[in-house]
Amino acid sequence: MIKLTRRTLLVGTSALVAAGTVSFRALAASRTYHALLVACTDYPNLPQKNWLIGPKNDAGLVRDYLLKNTPDPVKFSAENVILLAKDVEGANGPPTHAAIKAALADLAGKVQRDDFVYLHLSGHGAQQPQAKAGDETDGLDEIFLPSDIDKWINREEGVPNALVDNEVGAALDAIRDKGAFVWVVFDCCHSGTATRAAEVDDELERKVEFADLVGGDNAARAAAVKAYDDISASASRGFDENGGRKPAFNLTPTGAEPIARGKLVAFYAAQTVETTPEMPLPKGTPDAPRFGLFTFTILSKLAENPNVTYRQLGQAVLQQYSADGRTRPTPLFEGELDARVFGTDKTDAVMQWPIAVKDGDVAIGAGLLQGLTPGSKLAILPSALSKLSDAVGYLEVKLAKNLESQLAPVEFDGKPALAPTAVPAGAYARVAELAVDYKLLVAKPAPTAGLDKETELVNSVLDELVAKPKSGFHIALVEPGKSADLRLAVLREKSMDGAAANASDEPALWFLPASGDISLKDGSKPPRIVIHQDGRDKLAENTAKNLTTIFRATGLSRLAAASDYRPDEVSVQFLIKRQDSDVLEPIESSTVPRVSPGDQVHIAAKNGSDEFVDINVLYIGSDYSITHIVAERLAPINQQADQGLKEGLLAFTDTSFGMERMIAVLTEAPPQSEKEDLSFLAQEGVRAVTRAASGTPGFSDMLADIGMAPATRSVMRLADKSGPKGAVMIFPMETVPRA
User: Fold this and answer.
1) What is the model's pLDDT at position 386?
2) Helices in 246-350 by DSSP H: which ranges?
3) pLDDT confidence of residue 1
4) Pick from 47, 41, 53, 60: which is nearest to 202 by CA?
5) Where are the beta strands (DSSP E) in 85-200?
6) Helix (H, G, I), strand (E, B) or coil at 59
7) How many CA atoms lie within 13 Å of 435's alpha carbon, on the beta-carbon side?
8) Are 643 and 606 in contact (CB under 8 A)?
């Protein structure tokens, strides 16, 4: 069953430790936590265009998190964290093939039963023709590239010094044979076919084309590249024989395993036919360093709530990608996903940290990764077990780094600003309000040869829409290529790679994801508006409609960050009924299923709390259209005469293809209240509602803000007895034509 897996904010006294914790703590105290972090940035034998920046930052951030931020009693000691990287202080050596293999062998030699091993590989991935025929179903070996790789000369030897998938699997098996639990993260990619229609200045893909790996004379190079292209063209790439997504490295077994072998969890940044980027993060932070998107998202979700399962962490990553407007890449997660990350307790997460006061400066060991930004408000509590109503004052974040923040006392909620010296010894800072910024950053279209007038017209319309009051959306325009949530491009479909023979030659305004990628494969096509020089009013009207729809779709995804239901309070399960089948397949929360016309989606939802809960289900299409499907009220567990909500929701058609989303919105229903109905989000107009003049803003107010398009971020105040709860659950899926 898929349950609500967004992070839980404990509003009140910290939950008592669950039964069985003593045995967990005894295990945690007796086991040793190991880590091997590999960061490959420089590749002396490759063109400099293939060198990276982010992996060394990934490794440094992961090391800092493991040593300083893992939840008690999980403890990584510095001597057990091995870092292979160049130009990183405290690194144990360069990330060469020999060094990586030696470090893996050393781990296999010293781990004991029940130890924990974390492996993180950041750098380039690639593919090469398999050295042994029949070893891979698609004829290609996935490889990770250490810093000392050399040029590919022949098929038998492959890329010298590359780590091949089978080689990685054997090394991990040697560790697991000792009984250790292994979690491995691959922040690299191996191939990709998407076309970037809008340039992105600050993103770099972590992949190397096979042509850049090949050595020899021109004739030998051409023959090798042709052989690779022939294999790629004929392979069923990225998917297994059942149509499921295929991970890059085949690490988890398909049959029986020895009971004594340690368990394995593997996280992959992308499927084998996708690329994954590195970029300055957090987005919008001045002078932010480059990180791998996958690494940074994993750590930020883990920092927000470390007490989750691997499946819940995977779902949180997918939801964050949706909130950021990313349709690609598609991360993959496999293995023992229902185990808890690092083997932690099953407890509620409390967003609070000890306060350190020194020489008048106030600081906490949490920052951007935990979602704290300048302006965030935190309550000063006498102890970790205090209620929010016990707050003696408040702090405001003034400067936030990834894992630390500088704060200052502030007047808030009727309490005066304390002097730093008045902050009680042993005090904690707890998040006092949640803020969600709905503003969309929209990158203007770059000049396109032969379409200068059309581009000028579009930019003029955009300036007009931004200045228009009560537009139904709130956007900020940035220059082409700059960091953005949505990218615009003025193009002719006929000029694009992969365009059909009957593709339109009319200039159009295209609405693209943050990556700027456009794909015309499998029937997918981003939303677009045909541009006519004499049709300015029509262009403005249609652009406003599209921006309103995209604003609402993105706002719903971002609201997932404000969810405050515990996983055991409400369960929501979506199921797929394939065409010509009566079987209902549960959608696993950490996967992105593929569906085709004729397939159906069903729902099974049950309220396990003591209050009534309203559930709304919406469907966001690949064209950002929003369809409101159902609004129902679920009775509390002590009043249920039935089994909650069970029904078919929709059947897929052939009208659009691409990455789409099922969204379930849960809101606690106060006594004698009207049922929450979000059908207004699917309407063209904006619902005529206003905020109440008094009272504490709650989750329903944040939902209304999506329709109102606020000029500022939406805020939900937290308290010991908060207002009605709420949650947004996102289940991405990919629609493709039926084979």
Assistant:
1) 92
2) 293-304, 310-323
3) 24
4) 53
5) 116-122, 125-129, 140-144, 163-164, 181-187, 195-196
6) helix
7) 16
8) yes
Rounded to whole angstroms, the Cα distance separating 505 from 491 reads: 9
24-55 confidence digits (pLDDT tens): 566 666 789 999 999 999 999 999 999 999 99
pLDDT tens, 428-486? 999 987 777 888 899 999 999 999 999 999 999 999 999 988 788 889 999 999 989 99
**pLDDT confidence bin for 245, thresholds 50/70/90:** low
The answer to whether residue 233 scores a pLDDT higher than 90 is no
Q: Which residue has the tokens 């669950």?
A: 18
**Cβ atoms within 10 Å of 137's Cβ, excluding its own:** 15
pLDDT at 491 over 90: yes
Helix (H) or strand (E) holding 706: helix 699-708
Report whether 372 contacts 434 (CB < 8 A).
no
Pairing of strands 658-668, 332-335: unpaired
How confident is residue 715, by pLDDT bands cut at 50, 70 and 90?
low
Handedness of CA 95, 101, 107, 113 (dihedral sign): positive
What number of residues does the chain have? 739
* pLDDT for the residue numbered 554: 85
* Cβ contact 3:82 at 8 Å: no
Amino acid 55 reads P
Pairing of strands 594-595, 726-735: parallel
User: What long-range pairs does 22-28 form, CB within 8 A, spacing at least 24?
Assistant: 24/343, 24/345, 25/73, 27/114, 27/343, 28/73, 28/74, 28/75, 28/343
Name residue 97's amino acid.
Answer: H
Domain range list for the chain: 33-127+161-208+248-343, 356-426, 440-551, 556-735
d(CA 443, CA 311): 34
How far is residue 162's CA from residue 144's CA, in Å, rounded to a whole number?
Answer: 6
Distance CA 38, CA 34 (A): 13
Tell me the two tokens of residue 312: 């819940």
pLDDT of residue 114: 92
356-426: CATH class: mainly beta
Q: Which of 563, 552, 556 is nearest to 709 (CA)?
A: 552
**33-127+161-208+248-343 adopts what CATH topology?**
Rossmann fold (3.40.50)
Q: From 477, 480, 479, select the one nearest 491 (Cα to Cα).
A: 480
β pairing state of 181-187 and 264-268: parallel
Q: Of 134, 46, 131, 154, whose CA–CA distance to 143 is shortest?
A: 131
User: 408-412: long-range contacts (C-beta < 8 A, 24 or more apart)?
Assistant: 408/362, 409/362, 409/380, 410/377, 412/377
DSSP annotation of 369 reads G
Residue 137's pLDDT is 56
**Sign of the torsion angle spanned by Cα atoms 409, 411, 412, 418:** positive
